[in-house]
Design brief:
Blueprint: E1 8-9, E2 17-23, E3 37-43, E4 46-50, H1 56-65, E5 75-77, H2 83-86, H3 89-95, E6 100-104, H4 109-116, E7 121-125, E8 130-133, E9 136-138, E10 150-154, E11 157-162, H5 169-180, E12 184-190, H6 198-210, E13 216-219, H7 224-234, E14 246-247
Parallel strand pairs: 1-14, 4-5, 5-6, 6-7, 11-12, 12-13
Antiparallel strand pairs: 2-3, 2-14, 3-4, 8-9, 9-10, 10-11
The chain binds fe (ii) ion (FE2) (2 copies).
């Protein structure tokens, strides 16, 4: 399943396309990697941008080089208020002012007020899980940072995308599974595990499996050791992330 030097990977996720357009890990050498995360999701009938990385100029350039049209975005989903996830918001809205934005209530209320006037529709998510579109859900805002994850309900299982998973990646997986009663076909994004040791990571890998996670793609703030250990633990069901990675 892992093809070295090929940015395209198959993950049996029923025709949706996930494109990592901003990441501190490299994958496609023609793109710029900077600290942060953003993923463009192509689904039947809609295109969603999950987070915006730290820098709008680099985000837009990366999308362009990947052949992705930023003006055609229908939705911008923002996970949490950290700089490395919200830095490109302004650039994205400038290119696609007609989009719907789904933001956590942990963003500054003054920022939310300004954003409301800048996009077609702004939905602000609180601590409760919420349906935000056809087969699309937010886990609701979790933890002290106030972070939401995106859940896509597909025939083959759930696709869950996290920004940093500050509340704990197992808690995010558990909530997604509990919300919809289905296993997780793919868990992708920042897992925030760079300070965890070998023993703790082994427990987390087991815990994710017990929460019904079949495949994972840990990137951004997941940590090098976590990526190596999960690659060994999940084998062919581990996917490498990095900017330019395409998973479908
Ligand atoms: Fe982050
Ligand atoms: Fe963060």
């Amino acid at each position: 399943m892992r093809v070295l030097n090929d940015p395209s990977t198959s993950a049996d996720i029923n025709g949706i396309g996930l494109n990592i357009v901003f990441d501190n890990y490299p994958c496609n050498p023609n793109l710029q990697s900077l600290w942060g995360f953003a993923c463009l999701i192509e689904m039947a009938g809609q295109t969603i941008l999950f987070d915006t990385g730290s820098n709008g100029r680099v985000l837009v350039q990366n999308m362009k080089k990947m052949g992705l049209d930023s003006a055609s975005l229908d939705m911008l989903f923002v996970s949490h208020p950290h700089w490395d996830h919200i830095g490109g918001i302004d650039s994205v809205i400038e290119l696609a002012p007609h989009l719907e934005m789904v933001a956590p209530d942990s963003l500054s209320k003054f920022y939310l007020q300004d954003l409301r006037g800048a996009v077609r529709k702004l939905s602000v998510i609180d601590g409760k899980p919420a349906k935000i579109g056809e087969n699309l859900y937010s886990t609701g805002v979790m933890g002290e940072v106030g972070e939401q994850a995106l859940v896509i309900d597909m025939a083959t299982g759930l696709v869950v995308i996290t920004g940093c998973a500050h509340a704990g990646i197992e808690k995010v997986a558990a909530r997604a599974r509990e919300m919809l009663g289905r296993d997780i076909s793919l868990l992708m994004g920042g897992f925030h595990l760079s300070h965890h040791d070998h023993a703790a990571l082994e427990e987390i890998a087991d815990s994710l499996k017990s929460h019904g996670v079949r495949r994972l793609c840990p990137t951004h703030c997941s940590g090098d050791l976590a990526r190596r250990m999960f690659a060994a633990s999940f084998g062919a069901f581990y996917l490498d992330g990095g900017v330019g990675r395409k998973v479908s």
